[in-house]
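S.,

As promised, the 3-methyl-2-oxobutanoic acid run. Input:
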Amino acid sequence: MKNKKIKKIILLKGKRKIVSLTSYTFPISKILNRYCDFILVGDSVGTVHYGMKSTREVTLDMMIAHSRSVKLGAKKNLVLVDMPYKTYQNKFDAYANANKIIKNTKCDGVKLEGGKKISKIVSYLVKKNIPVMGHIGYLPQKSKFFIAGKNKTEKKKLLNDAKSLEKAGAFSMVLECITPQVAKEITRTVKIPTIGIGSSKNCDGQILVIDDMIGLSGFYPRFVKKYSNIQKIIENSVKKYCSDVKNGKFPRAKNSYK
Ligand code: KIV
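Predicted complex:
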């Protein structure tokens, strides 16, 4: 494993919880850079910032533009980039597109949604020196929302997916909306860190969409804890500014130009 930042994340398993958030822009990344173990440029940018109906509409060019901006704000951090829908349908496309992302953004690796079905693609990317984070459970690019792992068949499939990703060389994997028992079993079974979102505390680390946890997205799944209400802060500031302009309180009578 060449990338020291990735090695550091792997070594955290069993020592302390790994912390991550998504970011899509330079100013947010500058803050996350000081606190997070890694940053994900999620394709959630499509739904959160572009008002798209699903992440399927996100393009490679959008991910590259946002990732560049994120990396500029977080040069020292491990920054991973979601590969958009239909950009990794076979190993050759996956490599060409992942390589384009890494070359154009200087980010450290990519995240792909899927388990056993995409394990050959993962293994090809890893052999070509592209670090890969897996993503199993609920897959926003592939299905409508559901909680994964509720019955024996699903549990078996999820465990199989996790083991296949590990075998293919993924250095970590996101567990999205997986039942606590299954998240626990996967985390105990694989040697690489599991990063949970809506999958209980039984994971090696946690990730959330930044706009959800700061109260900006207006969409809050049950598992999200809102740490602030930025929507309200922005609204109050805009209201005050509009009222000041209308009432002649802004700009002030004297300005600093001489
Ligand atoms: O796109 C995204 O933000 C993600 C996280 C939910 C893990 O994949």
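The mean pLDDT is 96. The radius of gyration is 20 Å.

- D.
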